[in-house]
Design goal:
The protein is of the alpha/beta class and about 300 residues long. It has 5 helices and 17 strands. The strands form 3 sheets. The chain has a 12-stranded parallel beta sheet, with helices on one face. Strands 6-8-10 form a 3-stranded parallel beta sheet. This is F-box/FBD/LRR-repeat protein. It comes from Cardamine amara subsp. amara. It holds the Pfam family LRR_2. InterPro entries: FBD, FBL13/AtMIF1-like, LRR_dom_sf, LRR_PRU1-like.
């Protein structure tokens, strides 16, 4: 067993390191570990490193490719925050997370890989930020987050399955990006299954769309069959940045929430700025749109509606 300086609290390894640990390590004082472009010779090296830090609280993993080890297993009983960014290269592996004390989880940039992310044990999770993980082959990732009080999601329901029966009983704050295919249908599911939701923030593109990029347009907003409990009893704040009034489904979503959120106190819409001379003729149309939205009969008589262009 390798024993390091027992006073070491933070360790950062970076720049294409290949780590080989033929024996166990022991760093009882280590609280923070950063692995930036670090690969391991084998799975045993990962296990020896993580288990050798019994008081580890913060783990940051930033991986490039190729990776020798496909499946990165994280078993850390004391871990409180975990951030994973992976730029690809996982053909058939991924991550397994077992962290019963975990409170904050961030997973992003699973690009061009067919790996999975199995979240086995995170009962204390408070906040999770899940972005750009369309290549994760895992139907339970959302279900694994059901203890969270705050969620940030940048997902498409066409790529991530919503597990049947998943209820987010603790969720009070939800942020969702509106740039993925049929995001509005995932929103409907989240509203329907988050009975205590108090704050909803939708985040669109802050700048006009680049028409040369592949952009999913159109679609149909499938509103919940019954008005969700969160709209009837709990939702108080609704914020939409990058609101695109020209897209029909966005108008439908905005109208639905205003018509049904009976406890809503504040609804703030930040529309896309008109910054090009050729778009100046849209000013009048924008004004009409704002009047139309302002004219929606709101379920909450005390709702304060704000538009920022």
């Amino acid at each position: 067993m390798f024993s390091f300086n027992n006073t070491l609290e933070t360790l950062k390894l970076k720049h294409s390191v290949l780590l080989h640990l033929p024996d166990r390590v022991f760093m009882k004082s280590l609280r923070t570990l950063h692995l930036d472009c670090v690969d391991f010779k084998d799975n045993q090296s990962i296990r020896f490193l993580i288990s050798g830090c019994p008081n580890l609280e913060n783990l940051v993993i930033d991986r490039g490719y190729p990776n020798v080890v496909h499946t990165f297993v994280i078993v850390a009983p004391s871990l409180k925050t975990l951030s994973i960014k992976d730029y690809g290269g996982l053909e058939d592996g991924g991550y397994v997370i077992n962290a019963p004390s975990l409170k904050y989880l961030k997973i992003e940039e699973f690009s061009h890989c067919g790996g999975c992310c199995l979240i086995e044990n995170v009962p204390m999770l408070v906040e999770a930020n899940i972005k750009n993980v369309s290549y994760i082959v895992n139907e339970t990732i959302l279900g694994s987050l059901k203890s969270a009080k705050r969620l940030v999601l940048d997902l498409s329901p066409l790529e991530i399955t919503y597990p049947t029966g998943t209820i987010f009983y603790q969720l009070v704050n939800l942020e969702m990006y509106t740039r993925k295919a049929e995001w509005w249908n995932l929103l409907a599911l989240m509203l329907d299954n988050s009975p205590k939701l108090q704050v909803l923030k939708l985040i669109g593109e802050s700048e006009p769309l680049d028409l040369n990029k592949d952009v999913v347009v159109g679609g149909k907003w499938n509103q919940p069959k019954n008005v969700p409990e969160c709209l009837l009893s709990h939702l108080k704040i609704f914020v939409w940045t990058g609101y695109d009034w020209e897209r029909e489904e966005e108008k439908e979503v905005a109208t639905y929430i205003l018509k049904n959120a009976s406890q809503l106190k504040n609804a703030n819409f930040f529309t896309k700025p008109i910054i090009q001379s050729k778009e100046l003729n849209k000013l009048e149309e924008t004004s009409e749109m704002l009047k139309e939205l302002d004219g929606v009969v709101r379920a909450s008589s005390s709702c304060h509606l704000v538009f920022v262009g």
